[in-house]
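#lab-general

N.A. 3:47 PM
ok so I finally got the sequence cleaned up, no stray characters, all 219 residues accounted for. can someone with queue access submit it? mine expired

B.Y. 3:52 PM
send it over

N.A. 3:53 PM
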Amino acid sequence: LVQGFIAIAFIIIIGRLAQFQILEGHKHAASIKSNLMSNLPDIPRGEIVDRNEKVLALDLTRYMLEYNPVQCDENRDQLVAKLQEIVNLKNPQLLYRKSSQTLAHNLSKEQANKIRKLNSKLLYVRKVRTRFYPQGKHASHIIGYVDTYSKARQGMESKYEKLLHDDPEQKLELSIDSRVQVFAEKALEQRLNETGSSRGTVIVMSVKTGEIVAWAVSP
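B.Y. 4:20 PM
back already:
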């Protein structure tokens, strides 16, 4: 009796799967594709600038090189040699493995085009959008950052996530002056070294408006 119920349950499940995948497959495929497309992080973010319009954060189009382990008669030794002329592979041995691997990040369009001209079935160049911070680590605790999954983390990136995404042409202008910020960070580091202190803060404000012109912290 139990085996009979189990068999009936499996028949029902198989029937429902057939209904979803065969009879109604086209309808569900379109819906799934629509959801996936809407979740792709390919929407450019607006720029973040300081009070003098100096860019603190912007989107850049870069490329990622991936290894596709397919069966083919390509000479991997020659392929590695050609690739090394285009990009510095940290671990060329990845091209000899049987599983998919990411070979290089943050490639330029020129590098991507050269790799595509190799016409290798083992290589796949993927276009990605990355967040770039021209000022490096300066004011990083204020700006925050965007992770590899295009998720805003901390700082102004997270605080004004909706604004930066809703209108890519819209710039988020901060009251920070990059020149004063760099000076404040260097002065703080120097003072910490002189006193042997483990932490410190420097805040530069406008006495007229209360705007924060620079804010340095350590660590």
